[in-house]
Amino acid sequence: MTNTSASRRDIPDATVARLPVYLRVLRALSGRGVDVVSSNELADAAGVRSAGLRKDLSYLGSYGVRGVGYDVERLSEEITRELGLQSDFAVAIVGMGNLGRALADYRGFATRGFEVRWLIDNDPALTGIHVGALAIVDFDGFRPAADESVIGVIATPPHAAQAAADALVARGVRSILNFASEPLDLPESVAVRKVDLATELQILAFHDQRTRPEPAPLVEVPS
Amino acid sequence: MTNTSASRRDIPDATVARLPVYLRVLRALSGRGVDVVSSNELADAAGVRSAGLRKDLSYLGSYGVRGVGYDVERLSEEITRELGLQSDFAVAIVGMGNLGRALADYRGFATRGFEVRWLIDNDPALTGIHVGALAIVDFDGFRPAADESVIGVIATPPHAAQAAADALVARGVRSILNFASEPLDLPESVAVRKVDLATELQILAFHDQRTRPEPAPLVEVPS
DNA sequence: GGGTGTGAAGTTGTTCACAGCT
DNA sequence: AGCTGTGAACAACTTCACACCC
Lengths: 223, 223
Known about the structure:
2 copies of one chain form a homodimer.
Chain A: H1 13-31, E1 36-37, H2 39-46, H3 50-58, E2 64-65, E3 69-71, H4 72-83, E4 89-94, H5 98-105, E5 114-120, E6 130-131, E7 134-137, E8 150-154, H6 158-170, E9 175-178, E10 191-194, H7 197-210
Parallel strand pairs in A: 4-5, 4-8, 5-7, 8-9, 9-10
Antiparallel strand pairs in A: 1-3, 2-3, 6-7
Chain A binds a DNA duplex through helix 1, helix 3 and strand 2.
Family (chains A, B): Belongs to the transcriptional regulatory Rex family.
Protein name (chains A, B): Redox-sensing transcriptional repressor Rex
Pfam families (chains A, B): CoA_binding, Put_DNA-bind_N
């Protein structure tokens, strides 16, 4: 809802969630000098089915050539544009515990169009300390320009997550990646994605328990 | 498919993915001395709709009381049992870079039934070094008992992920949480979940770009 | 031949709305 | 009266299969 204004073309959420994966594969191919790829090869490398891949790409338009495949460069650009990644996004990480520091140093961001530009923590003992090339600031030191897009990453302890989110939103952040297990209560207009590590493990635990091979591989006694 | 043996009751994947969230909320309620909760309150705290919550819980059986709500303790136990979390799971983290170290120290695991028991890295310069109470070992030092369930967490650089996964599986691991962006090629019998941080950011970028308020909200003079 | 693009069918997940129990 | 449990309607997503084009 709230979808009042024009929503360009309507790309399903499930598709949007896979576009970054395709993009990564395409860039790897491009780096290896490949310039045409079939839906089968691409799907394989991305871990999806080829029919699904073709359907996903069809939402962007027709960028493939029948009997041949997709132009790697062209498709790459198209997805980049669709995801809005032509210009770099700035990232602000809140919470400089272990996880926050690890994220601050994470190499994968820069290579995919994200620049970590602020490290925020309200603990006065931490402000001023450098992590990599950046100094930790408190929220007063976080003043993004009104026209720049900043993605906020919450890596605080659970009880501080809501306050961190509110502070980010108050300063114009409209997209948040939340590592705290606490669900955030925010305006509809703010996009939130959650990564809860313990939840992921629990989901795996469920499947593990369900596919346990034998009931109890005890004993081997004859008798 | 491959669904040869009995699959107890059939709980939808989407429901399984939410059970851990409910469980966390229930435990928090329990800690605050609450002993009955309605689907509305629980749904609210978990960030879902009440009808959906009730449907989810209905897959576990009928543990609510009409006109009253759910017994917090009872439901907690039921979900715990269903997820297979009665006994602790052991976790092995592979790749002791920034992310691996952060995960090794992550407090959220222990409180949710997971014990990090192995820290693995094949770099000889790292083996023997302690991170918290555990020493880093190489794969030769990873010898879980045949009957214990271990969840493997891959926090290596992308190019090492497949080899790490293969090594885990060769030692009996059947559940893997993969932080590397590389998709893993593994037998069907191994459950894999992927957490790709850059992908999450890119999905947010898409939404951000799409909901940008005005073309250019300039002016207003600060100084 | 080879591989894309896409309606149609099938599957899975969500929401509604109300019967039924306490 | 209040709140759960659930069939039934609905919506989203996936897979199939084949027409169509190079």
